[in-house]
Amino acid sequence: MLIFLIGMMGSGKTTLGRQLAERLSYTFVDLDEYLEKREGRTIAQLFEQEGQDRFRELEREALEAVVQEYEHAVISTGGGAPCFFDNMDYINRHGKSCFLDVPVEEITKRLMASDLQVRPLLAGKTEAEINSFLVKTLGLRKQFYKQASIILQGPAIGVEELQILLNNN
Ligand SMILES: Nc1ncnc2c1ncn2[C@@H]1O[C@H](COP(=O)(O)OP(=O)(O)OP(=O)(O)O)[C@@H](O)[C@H]1O
Ligand SMILES: O=C(O)C1=C[C@@H](O)[C@@H](O)[C@H](O)C1
Ligand SMILES: [Mg+2]
């Protein structure tokens, strides 16, 4: 069984994914970290050196490699991963997907308190610019995220709630 957590940057995919994997005794895989190890470069370096179009191709290749490698795993995808190529169909064909639907105001607050340098799409932006980037990007991405098998609405999404929904779906 593969469980994919999807949603915007800062929605809690990595945080909740780790907790869920521990409860299920599954391997936890963070697709951003997996891609960084595979390419030997950070996400920020990949954006800078390859550009976003090539980054998306490398991200898809990493997604396929994870699916080949693991039988039981909780996988936190990159924020944009489900929204390129046929990645969302691919995810749904290979496991259960969970969309963490957290309000933009909450995400903005969390991201402002985190390290923006590791998130190339946000680096150098002010809080107001981040907020409007998130509103615009979520508007474009929601059509993909909404194809998830399970949708959880925040701001406070707990691991118990996620586990119950997974058992019932
Ligand atoms: N339920 C929560 N309540 C409050 N803060 C949270 C919650 N979940 C995550 N955070 C905080 O929000 C920030 C982003 O969380 P996290 O890294 O898990 O998000 P993500 O979806 O994996 O983001 P990315 O796509 O950038 O990897 C972190 O600083 C984390 O501590
Ligand atoms: O939302 C996005 O497009 C991104 C999210 C991160 O997880 C990384 O994959 C990268 O910073 C791009
Ligand atoms: Mg993450």
From TrEMBL:
Entry's cofactor comment: Binds 1 Mg(2+) ion per subunit.
Entry keywords, A to Z: Amino-acid biosynthesis, Aromatic amino acid biosynthesis, ATP-binding, Cytoplasm, Kinase, Magnesium, Metal-binding, Nucleotide-binding, Transferase
Record: residues binding substrate: 32, 56, 79, 141
Enzyme Commission number(s) from the entry: 2.7.1.71
Catalytic activity of the protein: shikimate + ATP = 3-phosphoshikimate + ADP + H(+)
Pfam families: SKI (PF01202)
Protein name as it appears in the record: Shikimate kinase
Organism listed in the record: Pontibacter toksunensis
